[in-house]
Amino acid sequence: LTRFGAGVAFPTVWVAPRAGSIMGISVNANAARAAGTLTVEVYKGGVATGLTAVRDASATPFKSTFQGAGLDTFVASDTLDLRITTDSGWLPTTCDVRASIEVEL
User: Fold this and answer.
1) Stated pTM of the model
2) Could you tell me the sign of the dihedral formed by the alpha carbons of 87, 95, 47, 53, in that order?
3) What pLDDT does 7 receive?
4) Which H helix or E strand runs over 22?
5) Is residue 92 classed as helix, strand or coil in its secondary structure?
């Protein structure tokens, strides 16, 4: 799933071609975290799944979180997307972030 990139219009959601499980999430950035927290979370059908990758003092600049099959499942035509939030102390103010979802079909 690619959310944004180099002025090219990319899809903002992934539509599942068949049933499966969300297995993991990763986040990477091109700038080191200086302060605060950045969180990326997987959403299914617009609802938070609770599966997150958090960049904080213990995870700079890359973080992955994995889980077992069957914990967050989806069916054909379900949509998955990623949402990024930061706390008020997040630094740097400019940073390119890439995040990805790992699924098992």
Assistant:
1) 0.86
2) negative
3) 52
4) strand 20-29
5) coil
Which tokens is 100 given?
A: 């990805």
pLDDT of residue 64 exceeding 80, the answer is yes
Residue 33 confidence (pLDDT) above 60: yes
What share of the chain has pLDDT > 90, as a percent? 68
Structural contact between residues 30 and 95, judged by C-beta atoms closer than 8 angstroms: yes
State the DSSP code for 93: S
Dihedral sign (CA 35, 53, 60, 85): negative
Buried b (16+ CB within 10 A) or exposed e, 5-34: eeeeeeeebbebeeebbbbbbbbebeeebe
End-to-end CA separation in angstroms for the chain: 15
Q: Which two tokens stand for residue 57?
A: 């003092």
72/67 Cα distance (integer angstroms) = 9
